Each structure stands twice: as structure tokens, then as C-alpha cells.
């Protein structure tokens, strides 16, 4: 049967979508390039915020109306099984904890006789020549944030074996991938359940020879703090992007406490300063939630002050979304959506001003980049050593390293030309 994997949400989910696609192909099913052309659509869901959940429900209705066979995976398959089953009675619902049994579950309902070669590099089955691969390294996390529904879906930390990750890493390089993204709900806590650590894993991966770049996924502050110095040492290797995604979520200690985030705003600031002392050009990406229950104007002001003082390279701003079953959903002092939206706009405007000023200072500099994606209007998208996106004119080959001169910028990206 013809299949298509349609993933939503975080990098982790897309990485698992790749794995699901390879399992489907190994069973003998045929990949196609769109849901419209598929007999089976694997809907790899996200439910992190209310708007995404509604989008998933709408997509289920669309696929059902199109008379597709639907397999639901991802976070909704665990956290909100009943919402799916009432709409898709008799369909397969496979939560993340059952991915190891996915092949058996699918083959029982959709048996085929002819297996084919498994594919691990490429986004699902849709682009096997993609030069980036996503490798999940763990399931779950050690945290228990009061607003997070993902914890219900992913559970506590289960780190994957180093040998398994290294095998996937090596295989991806053999298939032509040049950018490897390792990911988890909290990448920094990898190995805490097995006696290992993320720096130890990185050393194993970097022992594999070759010309490539590794991007390390999101890390929570309390987990990152435990491995900060050895991880900064790892980033001295040019094959590792000098890039850290570390969500602060709020600049107010009172709100961080209500979120059940186990650090203070000052600890976050100190951590960023330490990282920059190791690598002056390290890119820092962070997240902010606006309108969390009980967030006062003073709390919001503290978030603005933190962003202004730290000046991250990227700030992902999300308005609080009440998720069923979480502690935050039952909190009093809800913030009106209009207020949350205005606070989001204010932080976003500051973030863009800061980023534009910083990027202006890079014009005229020469940088080494890896070409990772095809852009629009005869351009390519490349990544610098600290993971800044650069739009490069011309038809440069995917997976190649170039020296480029920065010619212009926007708050979100740079423009460059080959040297």
C-alpha cells in the first residue's frame, strides 16, 4: 500500500516520523509524496498547545472525509487517545511508547509480502536525498512542568543505547547526510538514567570520521547546568554547531516557581554568560511563555528585562495555552488572551530589534557555511558554524561547505554570496 508520514510539532516528532517512514518502507509499503496520493496516512501528531490540537482534529476530519486509512502516532496518541478513537473507531493509534512494536502492529492490519530497503536519512519518505537527518536520543524527561501536556505523552526519561544512536549516526553519514540533529524532550539530561551523559555520547559520535555538522537539540537550564563545561569543551570541535537552545520561559522567579521550573532567572543569566565566556560567537536560542496564570505587569517586565540584558539570538514567544490535566490548567488568576497577545507582541518586537542590530554587525564578514536546504527564487539556505541561517544566491549543491561573505541581513537571517 502507498503511505505518507505527515509530522507536526517539534524536531523530535519529525525525527520519529523519519523512523516510522523507514519502518513502513521496510514492511514493503510504497512511499508517496503527499497524503492525497497515499492509501495510508500516518498522522504524527502534536498537542503542545490548544491551537495545534484543534489543527490535528481538523486534519483527522479531512483525511477521514478523503477516505484514507489513518494511523495516528505522536503525542495525541498517548495524551488524548479518547479524542482520536471517537473520531476514528477501528483505526490504529500508536503512542510513542509502542514505536518498537509499530512494525508488528501495522503488519497485522496491513500485511504485505515484499520487504524493501529501510531508509533512515530524509524527512519521512518524501525526500530521501535530504542532507539533514534527525536522530532521537531519548524518550521523556526528568521535569514536571506545570503547563506541559507532553509529559503525559512521553513520560519519564528513557535514554537510548549509545550503540544504537552511533549506528544510526554512522548510517546517516553513509547515506549522504551532512547535518545530524540529535534531539529529545530535554537533550541535556541524556544518560542520567543509565549512568551516561550527553558529553560522553558526543565524544562517541565525534569519533566517527568525516566532514559533517552536529546540532544539539533543546536543553532545559537545570539539566544543562550539570554538563555545561564539558559540553562547551565538546563545542571546540568544528563539527559541532556552536548553538544552544535553552528555554528560560519567564524572567520572573515567581512565575518560574509556578511553572515548576527548577532554576531562577539569575541562574539562567549566569549560565548564558558562562557559555559566552567559552565561545564568544555562540548562538543562544530561548523560549518565553506570556500570559501564564498569575503573570503580573511586573513579571512581564522582568521577562523584558531578561531578554534585553541577555540579548538571545532567537526568542520563540508562545502565549500560554491551558492544557487539560495539567496543574496550570487548574490555577486561578488566568490572564486574558488580549493581554497575553500584547505581551507577546512586545517581546517579539524587542527580540527583532536586538537581532537586527546584532546581524548588522556581521555584514562584510566571511563565514564558513553548510548548504542544507533549497530556498526560493534560485537561492539556497546554509548554516554558519553557530547555526545562523544564510540565504545564498545561486544553485549551490546541497551538503557542500562554502566560504561566503555576508552582504545583508534581516532580524531572522543573513544574506551572503560565495567568496
Description:
With 419 residues, the chain is of the alpha/beta class. It folds into 3 domains: 2-109, Rossmann fold (3-Layer(aba) Sandwich), CATH 3.40.50; 132-360, tm_1862 like domain (pyruvate-formate lyase- activating enzyme, Alpha-Beta Horseshoe); 366-418, Beta Barrel (OB fold (Dihydrolipoamide Acetyltransferase, E2P)), CATH 2.40.50.140. It contains 13 helices and 18 strands. The strands form 5 sheets. A 5-stranded parallel sheet has the order 2-1-3-4-5, sandwiched between helices. A 5-stranded mixed β-barrel has the order 14-15-16-18-17. Helix 12 links the parallel strand 12 (283-290) and strand 13 (314-319). Helix 8 (198-206) packs parallel to helix 9. It is globular, with a radius of gyration of 22 Å. Residues 116-128 have low confidence and may be disordered.
Descriptors for this entry?
single chain; 419 residues; alpha/beta; Rossmann fold; pyruvate-formate lyase- activating enzyme; OB fold (Dihydrolipoamide Acetyltransferase, E2P); 3 domains; 5-stranded parallel sheet; 5-stranded mixed β-barrel; 13 helices; 22% strand
